[in-house]
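Section 5: illustrative case.
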């Protein structure tokens, strides 16, 4: 039996061994912020994040406020411009308002200069959960997720989870130019919000292969635990 804590630690070690020696994470400024998550249930837990730079789960993030105090991208599709060559791994701080198991709460899509594209879905109970540990979906099962890199992971408290998204090999040799976050279509089963975004380049093909191997082993451990 492999514990959830061990899986998180192993996953962090594997990702770090594949990427950290040659590429630091690049925090991406958020655009199109349209909500202030600090006004939500236990939202005061996020006050210390804004306006600062923080290292959460070993990843660098920048936190800023919009002109009217907005702190997160929520609902409307928002295009975030970037310019990162050989993007290999994307880290997102995404949770949801409410949440019902199995609901599609939103997407994040990536586009490269040579036509590469990839869309990642946030599914309640798999890789996303409510930002507040209460009466809605409070669990995740995917090895992509590091729970509560900010906040308190217990009943009656708010938190932010981090997703580790490995981009397809088609992004190697291209420049990641835009990222689109969208939860506008999501149902009452949960709507995702994006509070932080960071990207790591993988300049050497061998490092990308190591990353895939490491995350493959992590996935195997997760499947073994569920069997």
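Designed sequence:
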């Amino acid at each position: 039996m492999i514990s959830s804590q061990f899986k998180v630690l192993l996953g962090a070690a594997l990702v770090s061994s594949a990427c950290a020696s040659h590429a630091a994470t690049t925090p991406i400024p958020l655009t199109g912020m349209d909500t202030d998550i600090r006004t939500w249930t236990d939202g005061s837990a996020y006050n210390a994040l804004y306006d600062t730079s923080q290292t959460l789960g070993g990843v660098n993030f920048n936190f800023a406020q919009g002109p009217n105090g907005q702190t997160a991208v929520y609902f409307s599709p928002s295009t975030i411009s970037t310019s990162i060559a050989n993007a290999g791994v994307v880290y997102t701080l995404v949770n949801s308002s409410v949440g019902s198991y199995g609901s599609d709460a939103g997407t994040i899509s990536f586009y490269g200069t040579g036509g590469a594209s990839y869309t990642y879905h946030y599914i309640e109970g798999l890789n996303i959960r409510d930002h507040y540990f209460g009466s809605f979906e409070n669990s995740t099962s995917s090895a992509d997720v590091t729970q509560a890199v900010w906040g308190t992971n217990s009943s009656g408290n708010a938190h932010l989870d981090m997703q580790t998204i490995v981009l397809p090999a088609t992004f190697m040799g291209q420049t990641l130019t835009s990222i689109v976050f969208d939860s506008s279509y999501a149902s009452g089963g949960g709507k995702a919000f994006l509070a932080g975004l960071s990207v790591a380049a993988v300049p050497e093909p061998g490092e990308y292969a190591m990353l895939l191997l490491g995350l493959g082993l992590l996935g195997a451990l997760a499947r073994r635990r569920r069997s």
